[in-house]
Amino acid sequence: MGEFDLIARYFTRPVRRATLGVGDDCALLAPAPGMQLAVSTDMLVEGRHFFANVDPEALGHKALAVNLSDLAACGARPLAFTLALALPRVDQPWLQAFAGGLLRLADDHGCELIGGDTTAGPLNICVTVFGEVPAGQALLRSGARAGDDIYVSGTLGDARLALDALRGHAQAAALPAALLAAARQRLERPTPRVALGLALRGVASSALDVSDGLLGDLGHILRASGVGACIDLSKTINLIAFSALQASATAQFDADYLQQCTLAGGDDYELAFTAAPTHRADVAAAAQASGTPVTRIGVVETTPGLRLIDAQGRPLVRHYASFDHFA
Ligand code: ADP
Ligand code: MG
Fold it and tell me: What residues does ligand 1 touch, defined as CB less than 6 Å away?
């Protein structure tokens, strides 16, 4: 099967919202009047972002999910995406499963595949998504103000726990099989919080998606906004999903290891955001309307830097390093 048959077979579908899709030199998108286009690209590289033997259906899902997560963080509604693929060989069952996972998630979000590029080479997947947001209403990293509450959606740390287990980390690998399977779902099939991002327009003062670890990612909001923050670690310890699933399992774990997973684990694809305390009811309504739990974990302060406290408000001196490809 050649390049063009492959594109036709697995990656070409009739256009819906776009003006022109796969098959010409450019695709054409017509943003609605008064809307801004939100654009984001994320690349997944074998050996770096996923294992060579990962389920291709899950990989297709994740390649788009991590991009939709960026749209969610901006409060943008997904429109379309392009797919640049380097493939070592044409493996039809693999392509079938990959395209299945990718296009199912795309359909769930009404986000259509409108173009891309296909070459031979080491497996590499690069998606660019396009979304739309009413002009001036995008959620940005730069809007946090002293006194705002800090929130995070969903659960944090499960993806890291699963990754550690796959790498043979003694504590993580000792997890009961059912818990490990649930954590692995979070690693391999993250849920982009698109509905929450949309519901937070006009409510959140700043937002981003947590991909490299909560504290490091929050640092981006703080620097962009010229503020600092205080985080209550008695709130974050409960964010790891499996603690809710089975309290007895949590007891076997070193609390510091669990905090490391929740605060700096990475690959969570949850939203971290800030909102003025006057918006507490609106945040709760956004969470309810989008079916996404949110937890208030701290407060924005004028003094730059990130401070950690315990349940009694006592300062804790700990360092949790987030993921950095070149550190
Ligand atoms: P060009 O030579 O202009 O870059 P190509 O010959 O590479 O175009 O691709 C032909 C068409 O197929 C283009 O419309 C391109 O956007 C689309 N395309 C290529 N690879 C993919 C892919 N993996 N998924 C979706 N569309 C693709
Ligand atoms: Mg090309």
Answer: 7, 11, 22-25, 83, 85, 113, 115-118
Q: Which two tokens stand for residue 196?
A: 């929450």
Helices 56-74 and 177-188: crossing angle, nearest 10°?
A: 60
Residue (of 161, 150, 169) closest to 245 by Cα position: 161
**Nearest-angstrom CA–CA distance, 120 and 125:** 12
> Tokens 């074998």 label which residue?
46
Closest C-alpha to ligand 1, atom 19: 117
10: its two tokens? 């697995």
Q: What is the pLDDT of residues 89-106, one digit of tens each?
A: 999 999 999 999 999 999
Superfamily of domain 3-134: PurM-like, N-terminal domain (3.30.1330.10)
Model confidence pLDDT, tens digit, residues 111-148 = 999 999 999 999 999 999 999 999 999 999 999 999 99
